Amino acid sequence: MPLYEYRCPACGVFELLLGMGTAGREASCPECGTAARRLLGAPGLSRAGSPEARLIERTEATASEPDVVAALPSGPRRPARHSTNPLHRRLPRP
Ligand SMILES: [Zn+2]
């Protein structure tokens, strides 16, 4: 169902999830009940293709289509797990 945006003169913009073609030009505000006018624009499409929408789609896809790697990533090696600072050798050991 598409998301429609309405602007209440008192409370500001709010969104309603309505069936396709059932959104009227006005709807009562869920906060105060005042008649709010519908904002023009593509319903439910405003976030499509945006960085946050792509991130959500990619995160959801990891559940069913996780990325599989065939080899370890090339590039700089991970830092050593122990310190190479000579001063750290003087620290008391457990
Ligand atoms: Zn309102």
UniProtKB/TrEMBL annotation:
Domain Putative regulatory protein FmdB zinc ribbon: 1-41
Domain of life: Bacteria
Region of interest called Disordered, as start-end residue ranges on this chain: 67-94
InterPro entries per the UniProt record, alphabetical: Regulatory_FmdB_Zinc_ribbon
Protein name: Putative regulatory protein FmdB zinc ribbon domain-containing protein
